[in-house]
Write the structure tokens for this entry.
Amino acid sequence: MQEQATAFREESDALYAILEPLADADWQRNTQFNGWTVNDVIAHLHSGNHSAELSLRDGPAYNRMKAERKKMGDEQGLSNLAMTHLWLNGISHRALLRQWRDTCIAVADAFAIADPRKRVPWAGRDMSARSSISARLMETWSHGQEIYDLLGKERVNTDHIRNIATLGVNTFGWTFANRGLPVPPLRPRVRLVSPSGANWEWDAEPKDNNPNLIEGSAAEFCQVVAQTRNIADTQLQVSGDTATQWMAIAQCFAGPPRTPPPPGARFMRRV
């Protein structure tokens, strides 16, 4: 699992590099994601990283924490974000940045030496440790996008986003089932060009008589399945009814169904 842990660490390092110079006022700027501030985004990522490390180290303790937070949220009518800030007890801005950074390192180190097949509890059903650290990579990459967009920073992707693309492909059926929709019998073929220029392919069987195909940039495919861009705002080529339906609702992250951003709603600001 060293590769996934290293990818998570590198993605966190890249995000830290654009956060570290920010003034306090920048942490209160609103992103294009639900109006969250930079502070909200890092609080959310820090909470998720802390939870993932705890679930790996002590599953029962994680389950107790999850139950306590759910009870408190239900009793007080708090959103998940509000619960996160309550848990942080006022920690924000650069103090939050330091805590997030330290936890990123601890998470990467812990998962790098863990058994990738170990089952760990999570918000929904249990998952493998490999899936857990891959999810942390995806969350860091996807929520990091709103900060890159806000600051007008061009993201430099590397081939470690293959983990996110694979997660996107593997959640094809779940995307439909999570919405109470029938799962199409045949998954579309996916053919992507990686940041390094390599060709990545996920061909569903049987290959014959399958008109559904998605082709293009791996980074743009990851943006669509992580819902940081609408499919209309990419140059991905989509063929077939099933592929078209999937790309309109794709969701590679856990939780209730979410609607992708409308066309033009998410973009990199020009500074």
